[in-house]
Amino acid sequence: MSGGSTPEPSPGVESLLDELLSAPTEEPRTEPAPDETGNRRAGLLDDQARTVLSTAVHAARDWGSSALDDTHLLWALTQTGPTARMLRETGVAVDRLARSLRTLAGARDATGGTTEPNPWMTAAARHALLGSHRQARHEGAARLGTRHLLLGVATDADSAAGRALARAIEQGERNRARAHSDEQTSPTPWLDEFGNDMTAHAADDTATVTGREQQLEQIAEVLARHDKNAPVLLGEPGVGKTAIVEELARRITNRTAPTPLAGKRLISLDVTAVVAGTQHRGDLERRLRELLREIAEQRSGLVIFVDEIHALVGAGAGEGTLDAATIVKPALARGELPLIGATTTEEYRRHVEKDPALERRLHPITVPEPTVPETVDILRGLRKRFQQHHNVRIDDQALHRAAELTSRHIPDRSLPDKAVDVLDHACARLRLRHERTTTARRQPLLDPETIAEIVAARTGIPTTELATGERAKLRELETHLAQRVVGQQRATRTVAETLRRARAGLADPQRPLCSFLFTGPTGVGKTELARALAATLFGENERAIRFDMGEFQEKHSVSRLVGAPPGYLGHDEAGQLTDSVRKRPYSVLLLDEIEKAHPDILNTLLQVLDAGRLTDSTGRTVDFSNTVVIMTSNIGAQRALELPPENRPDPTEELAPYFRPEFINRIDEIVTFEPLDTEALTEIALLLLDDTRKRLHDTNTHLEITDSAVNWLVHRGNHREFGARHLRRVIERELHNRIATLLMDDDHPEGTGLLVDTEQDALTVRLIDDPPSGRHATRTNSATTKR
């Protein structure tokens, strides 16, 4: 092996040879006797071929792969003297080919390798070795040599290694032809140094981009212009801006691109590499002018792609020097720089829009986040790549689950990137789990349950919660809500019916999922119902986005919701409402005490209730169609306390002095909450005391509460006007304070319990020795509260 010593034969080689001997062939054969297998195995390869196979096994193990692929085999051939010389004689750049093979194999550092001593063969590696075997037999060779191995790889044109070898040979032939015609110098040395030819690498990528035809057509139209032919893709991180450009390069390579782009080279320019090392004045300008000169001379056959194009603004600027954007602006204006840019909407607004001369030379193209069905189509295009890399099979339902769960539960990232990330992670987990638990060669199947495991690990939402379908949740919604909201059966039923109606497709899809106005006294469960709804529908309490509308009583406070207009302080910051819903579209929007908001705030919310969307100060439109809007109000609370339901006026009559009719008419349901009776307060007390019991259990302290103690707390906490909040305060003041005093006592041993009871019309808290059954065994130290 050139460039190093020959490795010892890997123990995995023997098992690979056995697998090769047992592989099906086109000719019938008889099963050899056990004592003949070793002889056949020893005579199958010559010494150099055995060394190559051993080197490939070592490479697979060191690069973190548990499978031997044809890329490992071809890389080992490039490290062996005879085959390396053979490749160089055909004009192949062997070192460059070896580097590309490491990239294709996903090589990692040695510290990230696998300890698997006997890697198994992929289908591509098996195909290459069988082809080598057939070639050797065709030639009548006694044993299989390195040349046969090379021919075996070369004959599989569909494999990654076969394509890489074919391109290397083709490139070598072009280099030799160029040298023969005295064209040894590249016409674009500066672009070769600072750029990456995307069209040259597009043939390796079998994945396709779907659902972006509109953006691809817009790019072609702008590039076909005579002047200002510089489209810029704008979108959130992860929506697939770079993937669109890669798809364009793929179509140019496949000759399916529009005529103005046919045959062109698409070069990705690395701005950071251009700027790097320009320490002295004029260095950056000199580099850029050389690049612009080359592009102008070759512009009929070139398109330049600049990712993170906002980095041009200010790049290399210093005292007495120009930044990169200023240098390229004249070329953009003359149409001498056919350019495709990409950046986020926020970076474009922050950097590019502040330079009007640069902005008017660019043509923005918006790249929206794909929908869930569009994301599923994108994942289907990537399925083959992941199946080959991880050696797994991917169920179509897993693709749907990845798109749906990431869209709903990972709001801080964009589709399709987050779905692709979860799918890749799930494939890796399945592959490693399969290797640890079974020796079967059959490829494991990725199912929706593994996808749910990955999403659960990232979000903290229980897997059982993710596995429960939305329809099942909606069918049992009243039951789930009643577990947290007590004494409001009518309210929970109204909310559940409205949500089922919306999810059944009977509601306007352009409006919010549902909109409610909760009215009633304080402390009866209005806010708790909103939180319970968020936890039930979306899996976590944090999906309730809460705004206290008492903080929005001034006219100017509307800018806090949608962002300040240009020219005002904070205009470069996102609005609190629009930014929260943009990041978490599947959520409950809770607007507490809505009657306190300024009328301009209500006008803004009117647009949300009517159109289901809101445009912030930066021009971004936020979609509320998956959001449940809940507003709370204490309007009519006094009459609810004084009058029975049948004698109360219509809720809209009480709301009319505070809200305009068009605002009230756009609310789906006005839900009136009833004052809590003693039975409801008792249930709430039991829930609160159960929380106390769980917290004490975490400190190895057991709590027992008698029925008389519960009744004592409910009697003290029963305040019709203040509701459950008064009961909570009573429990904290009368019970928690006494428990804390006892637990702080030095005589309190760990692992004992507390008994809460009443004695002579007073609440008592005592230490007990045997928590499960020893209520009689009380200590003398106790805390007592009289009624």
TrEMBL record:
- What CDD domains is this protein classified in? AAA (cd00009), RecA-like_ClpB_Hsp104-like (cd19499)
> PANTHER family attached here?
ATP-DEPENDENT CLP PROTEASE (PTHR11638), HEAT SHOCK PROTEIN 104 (PTHR11638:SF18)
Alphabetically list the UniProt keywords. Answer: ATP-binding, Chaperone, Hydrolase, Nucleotide-binding, Protease, Repeat
The UniProt entry, under SUPFAM superfamilies, shows:
Double Clp-N motif (SSF81923), P-loop containing nucleoside triphosphate hydrolases (SSF52540)
Question: One Pfam family, short name please?
Answer: ClpB_D2-small
The residue ranges of the AAA+ ATPase domain are: 227-368, 512-677
All copies of the Clp ATPase C-terminal domain together span: 676-765
Q: Which organism is it from?
A: Actinopolyspora biskrensis
Q: Where is the composition biased (Basic and acidic residues)?
A: 26-42, 172-183
Q: What GO molecular-function term can you cite, just one?
A: ATP binding
Q: Give the protein name, as stated in the record.
A: ATP-dependent Clp protease ATP-binding subunit ClpC
- Cellular component terms, GO, for this chain's entry? cytoplasm
Which GO terms are recorded in the biological process aspect for this UniProt protein?
cellular response to heat; proteolysis
Q: Where is this region: Disordered?
A: 1-42, 172-196, 768-787
Q: Does the keyword Chaperone apply?
A: yes
